[in-house]
Amino acid sequence: MFKVLIFGDVVGKTGRQAVAKILPKLKKQLHPHLIIANVENLAHGTGVTPKTLTTLEEAGVQVFTGGDHIFAKPDAAKIFELENSPLIRPANMSVPMGRGEKMLTVAKKRVLVINLLGRVFLGDKLNEKGIEIANPFKTVDEILKKYQDQKPQVVIVDFHTEATSEQVAMGYHLDGRASVLFGTHTHIPTADAQILKKGLGCITDVGMTGAKDTVLGVDKNIILKRFLEEDKESFDWPELDEAVVNALYVEINDRTNKATKIKLIQKTIKI
Ligand SMILES: [Fe+2]
Ligand SMILES: [Fe+2]
Fold it and tell me: 20 to 30 Å CA-CA from 167: which of 22, 115, 117, 159?
């Protein structure tokens, strides 16, 4: 049995500390072969830097995925330029840097991890920045075709989306062709972890790991002020001593490569 542990958006320092604190326990309990985390919010809430990524690597995370904020810190380029970089970004974003998929061998298994970005409610903002988002459904087909000859046994997809409809549709698009589809971006876990008929383990959103008593990781007072007074105070990501952890655990059958168990892990921990 191949076991995967996945953290959704890990937000800021509190999120990094929470992953580092909980991973030894989860490793002992679950013995995952592969640990993945979405790091678009890793460096003080937006983007990722070499230093912040190192803290998660040291904790045991092996592959990192991104989203709409992944290029927020210019230093991210240093990670994308690494040979055999552990970090991927949405494959359907029109950016010259980095790759949208990563093939690796873990516990003698050929694993293909793919990162995609949804277009519903996300396209316009990126278009303003001159970034186009290609059709994620067609992009994933192209990637699977490209890797056909390498015969990946386990395919895992991080689909970074705002709309649940787009996510659910992707589940039916990939069922029978991938082992795991997980959603990121909203920072809120959904209660729909399930295995589809042809063996795809999926969830609409894993949810974030980061400071508790915040609005999606951001200082709640700032967000309330923005809603109440339409004040445009800029965001801040507080470093607190209590964190929420949301992670997805999936077991995959060695012979069929189908998901046999999927479970959302939700905890509140002291940092
Ligand atoms: Fe995020
Ligand atoms: Fe995002």
Answer: 22
- C-alpha 38 – ligand 1 centre gap (Å): 8
Q: In this structure, what token pair is assigned to residue 158?
A: 């991080």
Nearest to 247 by CA among 202, 218, 216, 208: 208
Domains of the chain: 2-270 (3.60.21.10)
- What would the pLDDT profile of 43-67 be if each residue is shown by its tens digit? 999 999 999 999 999 999 999 999 9
Per-residue pLDDT tens for 61-97? 999 999 999 999 999 999 999 999 999 999 999 998 9
Q: How many whole angstroms from 195 Cα to the centroid of ligand 2? A: 25
| Ligand with the closest atom to the CA of 41 | 1
pTM for this predicted structure: 0.97
Q: Which phi and psi (to 5°) does residue 30 adopt?
A: -110, -20
C-beta of residue 35 within 8 angstroms of C-beta of residue 62: yes
CA of 267 to the centre of ligand 2 (A): 22
